[in-house]
Each structure stands twice: as C-alpha cells, then as structure tokens.
C-alpha cells in the first residue's frame, strides 16, 4: 500500500533536504534544510527569486538529481522507486514534444514505451485529447500548433498514466497572458477531474495564487523556505470569477509581502522597478 489514490496520503514528503553543487570555495548551496509535505490532491506552488532553488527542488522530487542531505519520498516510496513506478507526470517550460510524431502519438508515447497495447493506447489518447481540448488536432504535428496548444499536448502526455502527482516547472512561462490564463483555468479543471497533486514552479504571484492551495515562498543563497502561505480560495463560484474576488487579491498581497520581505530596500533617489 503506497497511498496512491488515498486522499489522506502524503504525495511528497521532503525531510531536511539540502543540495550543494560543486566543492570547496566554489560550492553553491542551492538548497538547505527543506521540509515540506504535499498532500494527495493538493496544489502547491514554489515561488521565489531567480536562483533560490525552485527547479532544483522539483528535479530532486522527480529523481532527476539526488539530494546532498536529507530524504524525499513520493507516496511513501523513495524518489527513484516512484520514478520507476511512474507515480508522477512531468511538464516543463518547453513542451518537449517529438516533432516527427503526431499529437496523438506524442500523447500515447509514455503508454507505448511501457508496453500498453495499441487499442488501450488509442482509447486513452482519445480521453486525454478531449481533456485538454485537442480532439480535432490528433493528426497534426507539433509545429502546426501554437505554443499554448503544444503545452496542452505536454500536459495530456504528463497525465497519460493517470499519475497521482504532476511536477510542473513554469509550464506556461513562455505563453502570452491570455493563453496563460486560459491554460491555468484548464489546469484547475483537470486537477479537479483527475484528483492529482501538483508541485508547480512559477515566477508569477497571481498564477501561484490562482492555482494553489498553498504557496511556498523561497529565499536564495542558500535556498530555503521562507514561509508557506495558505491560499485556500473558495473555488465553487467558478474559475474565472475567482480572479475578481477580494480573497484572491488578499492572497496575492500576502504572497507579495512575504516575497518582498527579504528584498533589499530601494536606494533613495534611485528608481526601482
Ligand atoms: N547543475 C548545476 N550545477 C551547478 N550549479 C547549479 C546547477 N543547477 C543549479 N545550480 C545552482 O543552484 C542554484 C539554484 O538554481 P535553480 O535553477 O534551482 O534556481 P531557480 O529558483 O529555479 O531559478 P530560476 O527562477 O532562475 O529558474 C543557482 O545558484 C544555480 O546556479
């Protein structure tokens, strides 16, 4: 019993994790003393200044890198076991689609690689393309799609094996604001439908607040968790309405205050942006 599918389970447990790159005087302490638990079905964003270790933490959870100290588990398994058991799906800033495969074949890829038979691959691809709104583009190739559509394919692919956890590193970072908002709304809907927990790296405070149950604010050198902000917006009124609500603006202000609490004060007489 590893807790996948159990809503009371802990999806990701990070205990005392540190990551140092290099040795001696040139060593970079990318992360130090990170403690974090992400629960099943919970949406948690990581936000903080450039270089504070957000991507490093995500890569450690995904077992794309190993911590120098501490331990990470995913649904009770070690990060490596979780990777081998396909407990999570990954989507990064670059959609990373294979240009010579159709949209359908890209979405089917993880299933085909892991031995799912053709019929089941096709059925699952149909479901996923409907979920991300791309049923009419199944036979297109990636270079025939917009950036936002390519990201939707990547999200569909990440969901192919019904992971209980999605790891996303600025998946909407390269998109225009309107497309980005649309995909945020879709992502919230998809998460509700699939019940997946998400760890989401972003530079955008409104994006973090809109998507998340909790926002983890990090500080750099060494990368640490400064504070975890509870957002807990009432999402029953519909996704779009949320962006107009006082509770949303209040959460944006709270995250901004924590984020800027450690920034150097502006020098008098010097314009800052
Ligand atoms: N493979 C590596 N080798 C050496 N240093 C690294 C490596 N990966 C990351 N670092 C360093 O670790 C620190 C954290 O990097 P990381 O990419 O995790 O930050 P980030 O918060 O995701 O930044 P950004 O918001 O700019 O993407 C940085 O100082 C970076 O230079």
UniProtKB/TrEMBL annotation:
- Residue stretches making up the ABC transporter domain: 12-245
- PROSITE patterns registered for this protein in UniProt: ABC_TRANSPORTER_1, ABC_TRANSPORTER_2
Concerning InterPro entries, the annotation shows: AAA+_ATPase (IPR003593), ABC_transporter-like_ATP-bd (IPR003439), ABC_transporter-like_CS (IPR017871), ABC_transporter_ATP-bind (IPR050166), P-loop_NTPase (IPR027417)
UniProt keyword Ribonucleoprotein present: no
An example Gene Ontology molecular-function term: ATP hydrolysis activity
Identify the keywords attached in UniProt to this record, alphabetized: ATP-binding, Nucleotide-binding, Transport
Q: Which domain of life is it from?
A: Bacteria
**Protein name as annotated:** ATP-binding cassette domain-containing protein
Q: Which organism is it from?
A: Georgenia ruanii
């Amino acid at each position: 019993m590893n807790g996948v599918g159990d809503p009371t389970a802990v999806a990701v447990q990070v205990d005392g994790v540190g990551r140092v790159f290099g040795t001696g005087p040139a060593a970079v302490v990318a992360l130090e003393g990170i403690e974090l638990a992400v629960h099943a079905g919970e949406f948690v964003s990581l936000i903080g200044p450039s270089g504070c270790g957000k991507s490093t933490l995500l890569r450690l959870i995904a077992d794309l890198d190993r911590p120098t100290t501490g331990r990470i588990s995913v649904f009770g398994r070690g990060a490596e076991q979780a990777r081998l058991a396909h407990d999570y799906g990954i989507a990064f800033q670059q959609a990373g689609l294979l240009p010579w495969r159709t949209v359908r074949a890209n979405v089917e890829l993880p299933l085909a690689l892991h031995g799912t038979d053709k019929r089941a691959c096709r059925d699952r691809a149909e479901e996923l393309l409907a979920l991300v709104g791309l049923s009419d583009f199944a036979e297109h190739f990636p270079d025939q799609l917009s950036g936002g559509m390519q990201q939707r394919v990547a999200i569909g692919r990440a969901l192919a094996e019904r992971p209980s956890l999605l790891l996303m590193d600025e998946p909407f970072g390269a998109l225009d604001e309107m497309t980005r908002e649309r995909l945020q709304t879709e992502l919230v809907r998809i998460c509700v439908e699939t019940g997946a927990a998400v760890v989401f790296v972003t530079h955008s405070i409104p994006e973090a607040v809109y998507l998340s149950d909790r926002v983890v604010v990090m500080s750099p050198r060494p990368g640490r968790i400064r504070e975890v902000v509870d957002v807990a917006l009432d999402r029953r009124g519909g996704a779009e309405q949320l962006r107009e609500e006082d509770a949303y603006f209040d959460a944006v202000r709270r995250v901004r205050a924590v984020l800027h609490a450690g920034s150097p004060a502006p020098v008098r007489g010097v314009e800052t942006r």
